[in-house]
Amino acid sequence: MKPQRLLILLLISIMLVNVSLFFQMKLKEENNKLLMNMYDDKIRLISYENDIKAMEEHRKYVDEFMEEFSYLSEEKENTLDYE
Q: DSSP states of the chain as a string?
């Protein structure tokens, strides 16, 4: 083979390696973006789960208060009926 052909083949192979590395880098960046989005979604999900737990706990206290209030209200009505 002529040295010029070898040089051309070498340049083509270097270009192919560079193109391959470029696309690998782009794929890695895209993968990192997707991983960060998944991480953000996971954090958001945990936050929502904590909010739901807090609302359920609050609802329990509201239900207890309403039971106590209705009991006191009934007791007051009963005492008014006797008067």
A: --HHHHHHHHHHHHHHHHHHHHHHHHHHHHHHHHHHHHHHHHHHHHHHHHHHHHHHHHHHHHHHHHHHHHHHHHHHHHHHHH-
Tens digit of pLDDT at every position of the chain (83 positions): 688 999 999 999 999 999 999 999 999 999 999 999 999 999 999 999 999 999 999 999 999 888 888 877 766 666 655 55
Cα–Cα distance measured from residue 66 to residue 71, given in angstroms and rounded to the nearest whole number:
8
Looking at this protein, which amino acid is placed at residue 75? E
Distance of CA 55 to the CA centre of its chain: 19
Taking CA atoms, 35 is separated from 12, 62, 73, in Å, by 34, 40, 56
